[in-house]
Structure formats: structure tokens, C-alpha cells
């Protein structure tokens, strides 16, 4: 009979099991740990006062600051429903993924030179960035960018971390290919790796920092002297290293990652999320 009706046996037995029972709505049922309206308002208000940050960074900032506790996907849905999300088109490079990522601090140090225009004159920002933590270890704004300038900045970074013996990663600029820089590397017992020609993305960590630095401090604040520029950059580097949550390292501040505090921060976030879920369960249980 079932075969003649083109009815699968499992469906027949499901119907048989339901015989005598009232029909029920089989759509999505409200969860007892859904986000509350107070939490939604808190997310929207916090995001509106931190529009320069992405929704994932905002998620962890709210957890760390005890504003709201939820996953980044929940924050995304709340902001999407409120029509506050920004979209950004990105194109993936086809030239490769660069170096293997370091597994601890001070394995890779990236250094590079970037132009900084101050009051119609060009100066040169030279920085040293740790590839593991993304922490900027040392920086200077100098009036020239010759081989000696590059050596001085790397040497002063080494003086801050005398136990470090990193691999120095640079591009193929003349400051890093000359004999003097090679002697400097050998004298300090370091290794030196140069990136692929015409492919600055392989030194992308320091390149990305240059972009972030200029958009976050120099361009909007337009310093009128080199002294003012150094003050502005110093304030931004302090914010970047100690406060700003970096998406590439799990939304941890670079200095915390450098000092090995990332594990305890992640554990504390998980604890707060678990506690928030329990509170929602209790809230909806009382409401029902």
C-alpha cells in the first residue's frame, strides 16, 4: 500500500506515532538564551561610539570592558538588523602567503622605511615590528634614510631586548643590501632575509602598520613640525601597542601578546561569555 501511494515507510511511522496528537508548529522556536533587549541596545550604543572599529574588534572590546558578552556573530546580526554594518570589498593576492608565521616573540623582526610628509617636507619613519605579536618595538622619524639610519633603528631595538636574536626581514632597498648593513647583521649574530623583488606584501606586517599609522594619526592630525609629528606618533604607538585590539592575533593588544598575556585574556573572555549565557537562561526562566 505504501509503495502504491509513493509514501516512504519512515514517514508512515512518523504519522502513526503522532496519531491523536494536536498539530504543532515545527518552525524555529525561541531559545531560552537569546540576547535581551538591554544587551542589544548596549551593543548598538557602544558601536556607535566606536565607529572606527570593526564589529569583531567591538565584540572583544565590550567583553574586556564589561559592557556586553556575546559572540562576534551575534554582534554582527544585531548591527545588521540595525543597518549599521559597513561592507568592504577585498581582493586576495595570488602571489603567495609570505613567510611561515613565527611561533614565539622575537623570532621575526620586520623593518622598513616609509615617507612622512610634514609641512611640505618629507621625513622618514623607520620602525621595527615583531612578527609574532605585531608589537612595534622601536621607531624613529629621521631626516634621512641611508644605510646608517636603518642600522641605528635596528640597533636601538636590540638594545631594548638584548636577549633577542631575531631574523631581520626587509625589502630590497639599498639601505638593507649594502655591505655595511651585512656587516652589522653578522656582528650581532643575526640572520637577514630579504623579500621578493617588487612584492612589498611579503613584508606586509610592517607595511600594514605604516598604513594604520598614517590613517590613524599623521593624516587626520596634520602635524606642522617634526617635533609635533614625533609627539603624535608616540601617542598613537602607545595606543597601538597597549590598547588597540589587533585582528590578526585574536583581538589581543600587541604588548599583551608580546608579554604572553594572551592566554589568560582569552580564558577570561570565555568565562565571561559562559556566565552571560547562564544569566540569560535564568532571565528567560523567570520571565516564563
UniProtKB/TrEMBL annotation:
Classify the source by domain of life.
Bacteria
Xref: InterPro entries: Integrase_cat-core, RNaseH-like_sf, RNaseH_sf, Transposase_IS3/IS150/IS904
Stored Pfam families = rve
The record's section on PROSITE patterns has: INTEGRASE (PS50994)
GO MF entry, a single one: nucleic acid binding
Q: Where is the Integrase catalytic domain?
A: 98-262
One GO biological process term is: DNA integration
The record's listing under Gene3D superfamilies reads: Ribonuclease H-like superfamily/Ribonuclease H
Q: What's the protein here called?
A: Integrase catalytic domain-containing protein
Q: What is the lineage of its organism?
A: Bacteria, Pseudomonadati, Lentisphaerota, Lentisphaeria, Lentisphaerales
Amino acid at each position: 500500500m505504501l509503495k502504491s501511494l509513493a509514501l516512504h515507510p519512515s514517514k508512515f511511522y512518523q504519522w502513526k506515532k503522532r496519531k491523536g496528537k494536536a498539530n504543532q508548529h515545527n518552525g524555529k522556536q525561541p531559545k531560552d538564551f537569546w540576547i535581551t533587549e538591554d544587551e542589544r541596545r548596549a551593543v548598538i550604543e557602544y558601536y556607535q561610539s566606536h565607529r572606527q572599529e570593526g564589529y569583531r574588534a567591538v565584540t572583544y572590546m565590550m567583553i574586556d570592558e564589561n559592557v556586553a558578552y556575546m559572540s562576534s556573530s551575534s554582534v554582527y546580526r544585531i548591527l545588521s538588523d540595525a543597518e549599521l554594518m559597513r561592507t568592504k570589498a577585498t581582493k586576495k593576492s595570488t602571489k603567495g602567503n609570505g613567510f611561515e608565521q613565527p611561533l614565539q616573540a622575537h623570532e621575526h623582526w620586520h623593518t622598513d622605511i616609509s615617507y612622512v610628509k610634514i609641512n611640505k617636507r618629507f621625513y622618514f619613519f623607520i620602525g621595527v615590528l615583531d612578527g609574532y605579536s605585531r608589537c612595534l618595538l622601536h621607531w624613529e622619524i629621521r631626516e634621512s634614510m641611508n644605510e646608517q639610519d636603518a642600522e641605528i633603528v635596528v640597533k636601538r631595538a636590540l638594545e631594548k631586548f638584548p636577549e633577542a636574536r631575531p631574523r631581520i626581514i626587509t625589502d630590497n632597498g639599498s639601505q638593507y643590501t649594502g655591505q655595511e648593513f651585512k656587516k652589522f647583521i653578522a656582528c650581532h649574530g643575526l640572520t637577514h632575509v630579504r623579500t621578493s623583488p617588487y612584492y612589498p606584501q611579503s613584508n606586509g606586517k610592517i607595511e600594514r602598520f605604516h598604513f594604520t599609522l598614517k590613517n590613524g594619526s599623521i593624516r587626520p592630525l596634520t602635524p606642522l613640525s617634526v617635533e609635533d609629528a614625533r609627539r603624535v606618533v608616540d601617542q598613537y604607538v602607545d595606543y597601538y601597542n597597549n590598547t588597540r585590539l589587533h585582528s590578526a592575533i585574536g583581538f589581543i593588544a600587541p604588548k599583551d601578546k608580546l608579554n604572553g598575556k594572551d592566554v589568560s585574556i582569552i580564558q577570561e573572555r570565555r568565562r565571561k561569555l559562559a556566565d552571560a549565557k547562564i544569566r540569560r537562561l535564568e532571565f528567560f526562566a523567570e520571565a516564563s
